[in-house]
Amino acid sequence: MNRTAAFAVVLATLLPVLGGCGIFGSDEEPANSEISLQSCRLPKAAPLAIAVGARANVPRPELPSEVQELMKGVAGAHQPLTLIRLDGAPAVVFDEPPPPRAKNPTADKQAVAEYLAKAQRAFAERMTAATAQADVLAALSLGGRATAEGGTVVLVDSGLQTVKPLDFAKDGLLDADPAEVAEYLTEERLLPDLHGRTVILAGFGNTAPPQPDLDNNLRAKVVDTWRTAAAASGACVVTLPQPNTQKSIVDKPEVAVVAQPPAPDPEFCGTVELGESDNIAFEPDTATFRDQQAARETMSKFADAMRGDKRRAELIGTTATDGSVAGRLDLSARRAEAVKAVLVEQGVAADRITTGGVGTDWPGHLPDIGPDGGLLPGPAGQNRKVVMNLTCAD
């Protein structure tokens, strides 16, 4: 079975029945003119753009029932529907204007059904990936241009972009602070204008082989990165989690695999670097954990080991290249103290833990300043660590 045929089979589960069998409950427009999802309102009488990643490394795409309902409402209101192929070079595959209202209800319903049938054919024939890699930001930008204020943009994908300016495979973005990623995109003027629109993120963080599964922490990080970026564009953002049980429908063209940051080994006697991927993440410019409970869970493994055999620990804080040198030294030392406080809270003797801060002056520091002098969120995130030197008892 070729790629087009394979995707055509999948379409039976993606789209509602499109024949003339009463898509809408009556000959009039649906009584509800909008759908409310989370804190966002999705008007049916407004343009809708849907970008789908039918590509390698993502599960078989499925349109959530809420999106299917919105599709029917938008078409029934004679508003434009745009379909976008999400791959390494996203492209609009369907943007035909909706038919004008017919003179009688029966003819009108038939015209709408034919319009949706054309959209279904576009899905089946043009939606599978044509270009290697994945560019989610470009698809979001296309969706923004295809919709007006009040419209909705739907992205169905894993969210693991593999091209600049957000290359999760090369730029360490699983270690980056989502707010900092959004700030970087804003400062570089890389975000589309989505004011007055709703963005729906469906299935973000879900993967398919050869892309390894993301753990709950990293899956949440991907969702937060895109939710924060879309919100910085002016959009109201809805996230719709989906099961991660399906294989991808195609494996070509290839998409780069995004490696997960290695998990720390609390049984290792030596140096362990604790950062974003280990839930040792802090609010910007503070020594306050972003998720205090997650930090406790990470450090509990180390606390267990240290209580059991009297290990000693040296905690050294590091920072990104942000602020003054004196400020970095102070902040890195306070973050090391914050980690120490968690260990002491969990029963480790305070006199077996020493702390210090080195700012950016340490051998593992990565270049995190771009050509224009701005802070690069991926490397910056990887530079914010607390390095633990564990000494085992003799």
List the helices and strands and how they pair.
Blueprint: H1 3-14, E1 34-37, E2 40-43, E3 48-52, H2 65-76, E4 81-85, E5 91-94, H3 105-126, H4 136-146, E6 152-156, H5 178-187, E7 198-202, H6 216-232, E8 236-240, E9 271-274, H7 292-309, E10 312-318, H8 325-345, E11 353-359, H9 377-383, E12 386-391
Parallel strand pairs: 3-4, 3-6, 6-7, 7-8, 10-11
Antiparallel strand pairs: 1-2, 4-5, 9-12, 10-12
| Order of secondary-structure elements | HEEEHEEHHEHEHEEHEHEHE
DSSP E strands, number: 12
The CATH first-level class of the largest domain comes to Alpha Beta
Q: Quote the beta fraction.
A: 15-25%
In the sheet with the most strands, the strands line up as: 5-4-3-6-7-8
Unreliable stretches covering 5 or more consecutive residues: 8-31
Could you describe the largest sheet, including whether it forms a barrel? 6 strands, mixed
Q: Between the first and last Cα atoms, what is the distance in angstroms?
A: 64 Å
- Tell me, rounded to a whole number, the average pLDDT: 86
What is Rg?
25 Å
Number of helices: 9
Shape: elongated
